[in-house]
Amino acid sequence: MADPASLSESGLPPCLDISKSCVLYTQWRSSSSMRVRISLEFKRLCPSVHTIDLDNIPEGYKVLNPSLSVPSFVVDGVLMTQSLAISEYLEDRWPDRGLGRLLPERADQRAAVRAVCCSVDTAGAESSDTTCSKAPSFA
Ligand SMILES: N[C@@H](CCC(=O)N[C@@H](CS)C(=O)NCC(=O)O)C(=O)O
């Protein structure tokens, strides 16, 4: 937990600029991308952020991530995919940053959190109305 003396005017710990080494590729209607954005916000980390239009994916992104999905997180040129894996990477690399831990200390409690994450992930994969490309467009 952050030392109260280190909080900014907003009451939140200050952001750490990681934009030189970390890039997030995201999409506003992507629940998986939202998961990573929440983890980054929780850790108060600010990567470089690029929005990918999933209906018109740029050629460069197709080369970067041939699965053509978001989120992608690139650290020092190394591609990471899968929102849960990216969130656990953030936890492993910056365990005590920002608002604290994403995962509890106790092994049984970590298992419980991971079980919830897996069930949300599975529910998303099995539900057709969470397919991002089928979400309504308001443009
Ligand atoms: N299990 C993956 C799911 C990634 C995924 O399916 N992302 C969706 C957006 S939520 C996507 O990019 N779909 C491609 C499309 O809609 O064209 C994760 O958690 O990152």
What string, H for helix and E for strand, traces the elements in order? EEHEEHEEHH
Mean pLDDT comes to 88
Report the portion of residues in β strands: 15-25%
Strand order of the largest sheet: 4-2-5-6
CATH superfamily: Glutaredoxin
Query: How would you classify the quaternary structure?
Result: single chain
Helix share of residues? 25-40%
- How would you sum up the global shape? globular
Care to describe what's here?
The chain has 139 residues and is an alpha/beta fold. The protein is 36% helix and 15% strand. The protein has one domain (15-126): Glutaredoxin (3-Layer(aba) Sandwich), CATH 3.40.30. The strands form 2 sheets. It has a 4-stranded mixed sheet, with helices on one face. A hairpin with a 2-residue loop joins strand 5 and strand 6 (78-81). Mean pLDDT is 88; it is low at 133-139. It comes from Naematelia encephala. It holds the Pfam family GST_N_2. Residues 20-98 form the GST N-terminal domain. GO terms for molecular function: glutathione transferase activity; maleylacetoacetate isomerase activity.
Structural features:
about 140 residues; alpha/beta; Glutaredoxin; 4 helices; disordered C terminus; four-stranded mixed sheet; Glutathione_S-Trfase_N; GST N-terminal domain-containing protein
Question: Strands, helices and their partners?
Answer:
Blueprint: E1 16-17, E2 22-26, H1 31-43, E3 45-46, E4 48-51, H2 59-64, E5 72-75, E6 78-81, H3 83-93, H4 107-126
Parallel strand pairs: 1-3, 2-4
Antiparallel strand pairs: 2-5, 5-6
Helix pairs in contact: 1-3
This protein binds glutathione.
